[in-house]
Amino acid sequence: MTNGKTQGKGASLTRRDFLRGLLRGVALVGLVGLGAKMALRRRCVTSADPDKWKVCGGCPDLSFCPSPGQPPDRIADSTRKVWQLDPAKCVQCGRCATNCVLQPSAVKCVHRFEMCGYCKLCFGYFLPGTPVLNSGAENQMCPTGAIKRAFIENPYHEYSIDEALCIGCGRCVKGCGAFGNGSLVLQVRHDLCVNCNECSIARHCPSGAFRQVPADAPRLLMQRGQKDVS
Amino acid sequence: MNKIAQLILVALIVMLALTVWRFMPERTGECANPECRYDLNVLKKTDTNFLLQAQVHWVKPALTNLTALAITPDDRIIVGASRGIEMLFQDGTRLSGFPVSGPVHCLAAASDGGILVGFKDHIELYSGDGVRKAVWKSPDPKTVLTSLAASSNVVYAADHVNRTVWRFSWSGEVLGRINGKDGTPDKTGFVVPSAFFDVAVAADGSVWIANPGMHRVEHYDAEGTYLSCWGVESMKPDGFCGCCNPSNIALTPDGDFVTSEKHIVRVKRYDTDGRFSGIISGQEEWGKDAVGLDLAVDSKGRILVLDPSADVVRIYTKR
Predict the structure, then answer these.
(1) pTM for this one?
(2) B98 to chain A nearest CA, in Å?
(3) Nearest of A197, A196, A179, A210 to residue A93 by alpha carbon
(4) pLDDT tens readout for residues B264-290
(5) Which of A32, A97, A229 lies closest to B35 in CB terms?
(6) Is this complex scored with an ipTM above 0.95?
(7) What domain range is B26 assigned to?
(8) Is B214 in Cβ contact with A155 (below 8 Å)?
(9) How far is A50 from chain B (nearest CA, A)?
(10) Per-residue pLDDT at A72
């Protein structure tokens, strides 16, 4: 009987100790996770002095930033650098759409009309295997319907980008590059870009396609024949 | 108690794994975005059910930067490059070679042993040993030639900028042009979004012209009158996909067609009526950016494919 009580008391104490240990373990895991999250995210470095404000890309959300949309200056000169995406290196992974501090992204699809084949079947516009070539949403490659298709003459069609709708996902660029002339490319639009010190997309770009270029030559457009002559 | 402890331990491990996983996707090379599920590798995979059994061997010319391929009536290989022409036997033995004045765009062999060399905007006629016999006048200031084919009476030259096939006499006079509009069902003409526009002559002297933007091959008589066409746009193996395919065509001695495509790189065979026979070579055998697979077929039906990326000629023989 005595042995039984002792065993019961001992068992109760062990459970309590165990639960206490468990809580400590959970708290520890949580702390480790939080610490890792903080370590992987850059801190906001916005200065208290408004004259030194630069949008740094450290903010998870621009609504927290005291200086959204206030880049240092927009004077185009060769000494000032801006971020741009090199289409020759771009793999259209989709991170331009998700990793820009702006939503929607400052990266947009740009159409090089002089390279375009004005194809009836444009793989930048239509999903592969589309049975009927019309502008039905189910047929379109673009998830936001940002590409407009206009009939020119049989069989030629013109494709233009509605930048307000474009999210920079690059799906059309991938389709055009894979099956067409590669006239659709992604580019950072500098009327939108806040020119972070460390571009948030560049930090996540798997192909290293982002680099800084002189502000007076802000485009990196693929030259004809750079990808192929097709 | 042990059981509860084990359960709790498992739960802790799961939580830890979830925490790690939360931070992993952004640090791996894999795409974390659901938008990139559009997988070209799936589209480019060759359906082995359609593969034709063929044996392949390679011939490597001394020239590099190969741009054009032709075959003589006695089955010798002619290749053109940025600055020269080379002739080889099919076992790879070099026969001869000579320099030319500029980058070779296209080639055709004459029945008398001569070689027609297409440059950007004009054609030159050489003897087999490299002596230039004639320089033909350019048919148009905007001309960019992409293909040549010769019958006994007429030389056909495909011009991708003017979207025209020029008909020349053997003395170099322009006999006329085929624009693909007259007599065709939809009168669209040749749709050539890229610099691939091929022409091939049949044994009866008629001419087959690839209309890549319309994903079909069109048949004209020697005078340029439209006769028929075949070909469908499709992602399936029997069709032509992308903006503009087939990029190159050739005819076998028995009248079958051999086509090559870019984007989804493949070499295919169609019968005399344009019915799909099978795939000779699929994407897996080529680099992802392989383009410009010029074709030729010798008198024994062996299929020759130019591989510009490796500067070799692949020769496919039925197994």
Answers:
(1) 0.76
(2) 27
(3) A210
(4) 899 999 999 999 999 999 999 998 778
(5) A97
(6) no
(7) 2-37
(8) yes
(9) 32
(10) 45
